[in-house]
Amino acid sequence: MEQKNITSKIKEKFGESVLEITEFRGDVSLSVTPNKIVEIAEFLKNDEDLQFVMCKDVTAIDWATRKNRFTIVYHVYSFKNNFNLRIKATISEDPPVIDSVTSVWRSANWYERETYDMYGINFRNHPDLRRMYMPEGFEYHPLRKEFPVLGIPGSLPLPEKPE
Amino acid sequence: MTMTSNKKVYTDEKILKKLMEDSNITIEDALENEMVINMGPQHPATHGVLRLLLRIDGETVVNCVPELGYLHRGYEKMAEEMSYIEFIPHTDRLDYTATMCNNVAYVLAVEKLLGIEAPKRAQYIRMMVAELSRIAAHMVAIGTYAMDVGAVTMVMWTFREREKIQNIFDRLAGARFTTSYTRIGGVASDADDETLKMVREFLDQFHPAFEEMDKLLLPNKIFINRLEGIGVLNKDDAIELGVTGPNLRASGVAYDVRRAKPYLFYDEIDFNIPVYTEGDCLARYFLRGDEVRESVKILYQILDKMPAGEVRANDPKHVLPHKTEIYTKMEELIHDFMIINYGINPPEGDVFFSAENPKGELGFYIVSNGKGKPWKLKIRSPSFCNLQAIAQLCKGAMISDVIAIIGSLDPVMGEADK
User: Fold this and answer.
1) Which of B276, B280, B277 is nearest to B232 (CA)?
2) Beta carbons of A86 and B115 less than 8 Å apart
3) By the CB < 8 Å criterion, does A123 face chain B?
4) Homologous superfamily, domain A3-124
5) What's the pLDDT tens digit per position in B217-230?
6) Residue A80's CB: how many other CB atoms inside 10 A?
7) Residue A61 has what pLDDT?
8) A–B: how many Cβ contacts below 8 A?
9) What CATH architecture applies to the domain B75-416?
10) Which of A87, A132, A163, B15 could form a disulfide with A74 if both were Cys (CB 3.0 to 4.6 A apart)?
11) Distances from the Cα of B70 to the Cαs of A134, B36, B51, B74, in angstroms?
């Protein structure tokens, strides 16, 4: 399938839920409404012509000052069409919640855990939403823009000084 | 898979009675009980600081929970605070067995964002170093993998070859290990005839040496039996779990970014994509060997086709000028000052670029706000994604097979933990 057919097919199916289709340097992005994300994911994966069977990456962008602060970014790939598609869903900071796509793509499990760890996005219906890299008791989400690069003193408990 | 039953009950009445008197648990309890063991993070066979929590019943793994993050250095956060050029040395520290591949993938991502292209010779040199690096990485993978399952000699043989590649890098980049060789819009320095001669000499002697390695391992029945049918990952699961690279191809999916979305000049090169359908540890071993052979083939073609010309693009706003020019010419000095101090300022937008690395598909997702530093830089690291399969592969395996499974997936924790 050609790129135009792919995007128009998704647009046809979901109509107003697909907010914007953009192209930059050959990458096609699809902005969608966050409440429809699982439905769209299921369609992308299971449709005969599309077959976006592999989820390559899930991450978030912190826009810091914007009203809708976070954009969740999914990169999916279709072996059949040899096509990379980027899906974006923008959510507000309060509360930073979006449905998990783990039920559609199993690989999203760790990607979403990482995104939760780094940005504090809560993925609804995620089977095991724990921190991926940072220790369990850590309070902050380091890739948020307000977190300083040098870290916050005292945020990571260190071993006590020997006498 | 061979699974020995562990539920042998003591038949000697005397021993049984004595044991029962000594403790308040029954002997059946002791045998039925599941045990949790903590493998790693300081375990030599976990290839770095990978920690696996294993629930075992006798010698059979019932469940496996991988824990990551022991080598987390926060490169994605650091990238937001430095210019695009400053981040190149940090890509060395991702997959530290294949530094050149990371360098190449990163600058290609930035070039995609900028919309510029390096000259043909630079791209051919990049292709050459990426393939050399791929051989070097697979040498580590094969050597340590064989060592993990008991064939210790192999690692000496593979590292001997790897050393020769690092000598080439030393001449080319000035460093053996942390190369940082590529630049945005080109490479740091041109490959002279002497270097190309070194590559050719290396290739000429490498082929017989690699055949010898095969002779060392493959008639070894212990090695084959240890890996055959272990850790089977079928095609659908591999795709579902986001596994890429050799591990995906060993499960029967002929997906290689070099062929699917050709970057550099891979479309001008004739090479095969080895595929195995078994999906077990042995297939993953064979596949890496076949990939090395393909890389040798690619390298010969690169050497034959190596074009002449510049190694840096003529784009003074984005590409660093050569050092000798900075010292002698005013314009170049100004551009160098601007690029170093204010960055290359790519247009607003976001790109995802992925390249085929020895471990799998390394992707960079860069969001630019038009300033000198990336607003966001996400690394899609293949080792991280491949490790997600480990829980499934370990379930039902013997505890000694866990070592073989980790070795066959070949994770590098520098990359998985970022």
Assistant:
1) B280
2) no
3) no
4) NADH:ubiquinone oxidoreductase Nqo5 subunit (3.30.460.80)
5) 888 888 888 888 88
6) 12
7) 92
8) 88
9) Orthogonal Bundle (1.10)
10) A87
11) 9, 20, 8, 11
The rounded distance, in Å, linking the Cα atoms of A118 and A107 is: 18
Calculate how close chain A gets to B400, using CA atoms only, in Å: 26
3-class DSSP state of B312: strand
- Interface touch A75/B72, C-beta < 8 Å: no
Say if CB B182 and CB B104 are below 8 A apart.
yes
Q: Contact, B168 vs B195, CB < 8 A?
A: yes
Residues of B (369-408) whose Cβ lies below 8 Å from A = 375-376, 378, 380, 384-385, 388
A81: nearest CA in chain B? B260
Phi-psi region of B174 (alpha: psi -120 to 50; beta: other; left: phi over 0): left
Amino acid identity, position B134: R
- Is A85:A76 a contact under the CB 8 Å cutoff? yes
Contact A62, A79 (CB under 8 A): no
Average pLDDT, chain A: 87
Note the pLDDT of residue B2. Answer: 40
Distance, first Cα to last Cα, chain A:
70
Q: What is the pLDDT of residues B110-161, one digit of tens each?
A: 999 998 989 999 999 999 999 999 999 999 998 888 888 888 888 888 998 8
What does the mean pLDDT of chain B come to?
86
Model pLDDT, residue B5 = 44
